[in-house]
């Protein structure tokens, strides 16, 4: 009869966890760094667009360089780059922020991106419509645009506000994980298979010769500390072991 049977080695659990069954580790330092960098990028894009728009409106609302059919007022230095970076950089960072939020199963502020964009730009129109540069008086075209932009931002804000805030009260395991669902299923299957192998090894060794409860708990603890098991998986596995003791 084979002695010192390690059910984890029989299952190949460690190898599987390090390859196809790999998943985000709770407590990893990467998650907060990635979330901070991407959400800061979204905020930077919105800020560049907001400030670029104000710079253009401060010189009358239009500017361009070159060509016979464009306004002759030159754009302030750096504004074209700021507008280009604000639009495209902001869109790219929004996409990365969405990926990071799904990857690490964290609550996301992405639902606020559209309201933040249109409310901020609407405020620019209203601000300059009431107090335009020079002696233009009230600029009703800007005021109407500002009101429309405000509605375009405030309407969706009322829709997404409650769901976004509610997402911060969910437990991590209750949050939708989208593309990670197959990975979660594979990890669950591997964990169930591990218990089955451990039980089979105990029976083959004659019951008493197999790993005792303390040994099993120690193995689970090592897997948890090593990051192969998340907090939720470790708790579920431990309760399953104690429940069958």
3D structure, described in words:
- The protein folds into 2 domains: 30-174, no CATH class; 180-243, no CATH class.
- The protein starts with 6 loop residues before the first helix and ends with a helix.
- The longest helix has 28 residues, at 30-57.
- It is 66% helix and 0% strand.
- By secondary structure, the protein is an all-alpha fold.
Compact description:
With 245 residues, this protein is mainly alpha-helical. The chain contains nine helices and no strands.
Nearest-integer average pLDDT: 76
**What oligomeric state is this?**
single chain
Q: Give the ordered list of helices and strands.
A: HHHHHHHHH
The number of distinct structural domains comes to 2
Give helix % range. 55-70%
Tally of alpha and pi helices:
9
Total strand segments: 0
Summing up helix and strand content along with how strands pair, one would put the structural category as: mainly alpha
Low-confidence stretches: 1-27, 176-183
Please report the distance between the alpha carbons of the first and last residues: 24 Å
The main β sheet shows up as: none
Query: What is the percentage of strand-forming residues?
Result: under 5%
Rg estimate, integer Å: 28 Å
Shape assignment:
elongated
